[in-house]
Specification:
The complex is a heterodimer of chains A (492) and B (261). With 492 residues, chain A is mainly α. Helices cover 77% and strands 2% of the residues of chain A. Chain A has a two-stranded antiparallel ribbon with strand order 1-2. In chain A, helix 11 runs parallel beside helix 17, helix 12 packs antiparallel against helix 13 and helix 16 runs antiparallel to helix 17. The radius of gyration of chain A is 21 Å and the shape is globular. Chain B starts with a helix and ends in an 18-residue tail after the last helix. Chain B is mostly helical. The chains are: A mainly alpha (492), B mainly alpha (261). Chains A and B meet through helix 1, helix 4, helix 5, helix 6 and helix 8 of A and helix 1, helix 2, helix 4 and helix 7 of B.
Chain lengths: 492, 261
């Protein structure tokens, strides 16, 4: 990418939401209009970024024009681009939904600045190529997320999100300790240079292993890997619906992305099978435990939150499989499957939470047992719940179906058949908790004279759910293309 | 007899647990220190300090710390300012500020009228001196924030900050100017936050001035502890007359639980 580009999409993806956040803060009277404008502009920048990566391969940008050690790098490879695109489209949907969700003037004015700051942090995290910059992004994400989660203002929400904030700080500090160790040993913070340094210094195994343990453990706490998930269900279930959607679909996913980045790019030389087994085992327990708790949950949003715990577990199952698969088409398939699972869950969980929020607003509660007649009153919303539910289960046309299929295929191919049992159990439990909701929603109540329709809220929920099922499942080819581009660009 | 014994056992167990935790944490600390020493001795890698000094002449400032914060790693600093703003907006989202304290007495008021202007002047000095010596926007902003805290303690419910509308502009000034400078440079073909060496000094000074205001306002507003009180919250002369008994106008308003006879 030449310097002549007047508007670099890498920069715009971060600068536009930031600028939007400032304008929304300074001009609270126009927060909804300015917020939507910033949301559309940011999503457009993300699409432009994806188009540029599609044409030119991995993008790399040294900010400030300094040497590689001094400057902060931004970069977008296939994995980052796919997740940025997912995050920005989901965030656009959430923004449209949020423009009609908040009615209280104070809430509206509090939501938009924090939401756009969170968005800037998300894009910044996906596109960062520098360990310390990643820490700053984690901080921005953590503080904005906790503040947004507490926006309902009731005691439970504030308590849950205060805990979320403190847990997140603990995770960030642990990550920062690891960064400090690596900087002491290698004298650079650039991800690419560090990766080369770690690969060249097997004698520093103690330092590398300690840094990896600190960083991955800290991030696992923020990504809610079992048994470090305790903070997630109350924080996500008590937040306002658009915020729950963003926290569950995007923020947790961004932290997992960072773990994956560290694991694959930085610590690959020292992460053997044994190191990969521990997170995968915890992930397996997360799948079963999270799905079981989701099945037993009394409230719709709590169900969705526990389902997130389970879905994060699936992503960790890929680590030992990646360790056992030599580079080649099989490994590309596995990475694509991982990406598909993450992206599908992003769309599906956002759609689910937005729809659950509509149910809650209209029924005045979200107790699953009392949802009778929801299908009659809110047909589009119920459809959205069913669609995103089928993506959570992994039913055929959805993206997670392909992801789970490839996951199980690879588990058998590499002789780790026990993961198949975990995935099947998780899918069965997921169908149980999704159908439990649907069987209540499709009660035998009489059809009312008029449906409740609210396009601004229903269209985003339905679109996100539809993307997770139809678009990602039937047109998942581009994911492979993006990954191929990144492999060519990095030359790994 | 049995209940206290059970209690003893419980406290004993919790004490054991705490001891175990302390031992484990100490071991962790020792292990981390050892690893840190190994990393330190690995020092074959050139540290960044040499390179940072080498490039200093083209950064527009002479203080290496300011060069790192505002030039080499300006993007980090921009995002840190956003973090500060996010923290403040989080505080605002939780509710309105608690009511202010009573107006200060004559002695405190006199001290405040001496100290606060001094703090503001020192803040300006810190901002300017940051170009070639320790100082800069964060130190200057901290001084302004301290001035705000003192003003609030002396009874101003808004900590000396203007009304909400203007306050919002002060708060976003840092990130806004920073981002606009960055985008402006990009639009002129230099790249995001890539200062041309001839302009670097003045652009950095502009960004630092805006950041100082924003940091000072954010710290003071965070101390206020909630959404700013409305325009009529500043206690007026009539309020004070209502608060203090008419017979003793010269006395400072006594705290409610004053133990004076």
């Amino acid at each position: 990418m030449s310097d002549a580009a007047l508007t670099h999409p890498l920069v715009l993806c971060i600068a536009l939401p930031l600028l939007g956040a400032m304008l929304v803060t300074a001009l609270p009277r126009w927060s909804v209009r300015l917020g939507i404008l910033a949301a559309v502009a940011t999503a457009a920048a993300a699409v432009a970024l994806a188009a540029t990566v599609w044409q030119q391969g991995t993008l790399h940008l040294m900010l400030g024009g300094w040497d590689r050690q001094l400057a902060i790098a931004l970069r977008a490879d296939g994995i980052a681009t796919a997740l940025v695109l997912m995050a920005n489209l989901v965030a656009l949907g959430i923004s449209v939904y949020a423009s009609g969700y908040f009615h209280d003037r104070v809430r509206v004015r509090s939501f938009w600045p924090l939401w756009l700051l969170l968005w800037a942090g998300l894009n910044g995290l996906f596109l960062a190529g520098d360990l310390f910059n990643l820490y700053v992004m984690l901080e921005l994400l953590g503080i904005a997320a906790a503040a947004l989660g507490a926006l309902t203002g009731n005691r439970d929400a504030v308590a849950a999100n205060l805990r979320y904030l403190l847990v997140g700080l603990l995770g960030s500090i642990s990550y920062l300790l690891g960064v400090a160790l690596l900087y002491t040993a290698y004298g650079t913070l650039d991800l690419g240079l560090l990766a080369a340094g770690i690969a060249d210094s097997p004698q520093l195994l103690a330092v590398n292993a300690a840094a990896m343990t600190l960083m991955v453990a800290g991030l696992a706490l923020k990504a809610a890997l079992f048994p470090l998930h305790f903070w997630l269900p109350p924080a996500h279930a008590n937040a306002p619906a658009p915020v729950s959607a963003a926290l569950s679909a995007l923020v947790v996913k961004a932290v997992f992305y960072l773990i994956l980045r560290l694991w694959l790019d930085l610590f690959w030389p020292i992460t053997g099978m044994a190191a990969a087994m521990l997170p995968a085992l915890l992930g397996a327990v997360a799948i079963v435990w999270g799905s079981w708790r989701a099945l037993r949950a009394e409230r719709l949003k709590l169900l969705a939150a526990y389902s997130t715990v389970a879905q994060i577990g699936y992503l960790f199952l890929f680590l030992p499989l990646l360790a056992a698969t030599p580079p080649g088409p099989a490994r590309d398939d596995l990475l694509a499957a991982l990406l598909l699972m993450a992206v599908t869950h992003g769309f599906a969980k956002a759609g689910f939470f937005l729809a659950a929020g509509l149910v809650q607003t209209n029924a005045g509660h979200d107790r699953i047992d009392d949802l009778g007649g929801t299908a009659q009153r809110l047909p589009a919303t119920t459809f959205a719940i069913a669609l995103s539910g089928s993506a959570l289960i992994g039913l055929p046309p959805s993206g997670s179906f392909i992801g789970k299929w490839l996951l199980m295929q690879s588990a058998i191919a590499t002789g780790q058949w026990w993961w198949v049992i975990v995935v099947t159990t998780g899918s069965l439990l997921a169908s149980a908790y999704v159908f439990r909701v649907l069987s209540r929603a499709f009660g035998l109540e009489p059809t009312p004279m008029r449906f409740i329709t609210d396009a601004r809220a229903e269209v985003p929920a339905l679109t996100l759910a539809l993307v997770s099922v139809a678009v990602l499942g039937l047109a998942s080819g581009p994911v492979w293309t993006l990954l191929g581009l990144s492999a060519a660009g990095v030359g790994a | 007899m049995s209940a206290p014994a059970g209690l003893d056992r419980a406290t004993e167990r919790s004490r054991d647990l705490r001891l175990l935790l302390a031992v484990l944490l100490t071991l962790l600390g020792v292990a981390l220190t050892l690893v840190y020493l190994i990393a330190l001795n690995a020092g074959a890698a050139p540290r960044l300090a040499d390179l940072a000094y080498e490039r200093l002449p083209s950064t527009g400032v002479q203080n290496p710390v300011t060069a790192v914060l505002l030039n080499y790693r300006a993007y980090d600093t921009l995002m840190e300012l956003a973090v500060l703003l996010a923290a403040l907006l989080g505080i605002w989202a939780l509710g309105p500020a608690p009511p202010g304290f009573q107006r200060s007495g004559a002695v405190l008021a006199a001290m405040v009228s001496w100290v606060v202007p001094l703090l503001i002047v020192t803040g300006g000095y810190m901002l300017w001196v940051g170009g070639y010596a320790p100082g800069g926007a964060f130190q200057a902003g901290a001084l302004l924030g301290a001035a705000g805290v003192i003003v609030r303690l002396a009874g101003d419910p808004r900590a000396g900050l203007p009304g909400e509308a203007a306050q919002r502009w002060l708060l976003v000034a840092g990130v806004l100017v920073f981002t606009l400078v960055g985008l402006g440079l990009m639009a002129f073909g230099a790249g995001f936050l890539t200062y041309p060496p001839t302009l670097a000094k003045w652009l950095i000074l502009l960004i630092e001035a805006a950041a100082t205001v924003a940091i000072g306002a954010a710290l003071a507003a965070a101390y206020v502890g909630g959404r700013p009180p409305g325009p009529d919250a500043r206690p007026t002369a009539e309020d004070e007359d209502a608060l203090t008994p008419a017979q003793t106008p010269a006395n400072p308003p006594a705290p409610p639980l004053d133990p004076r006879p």
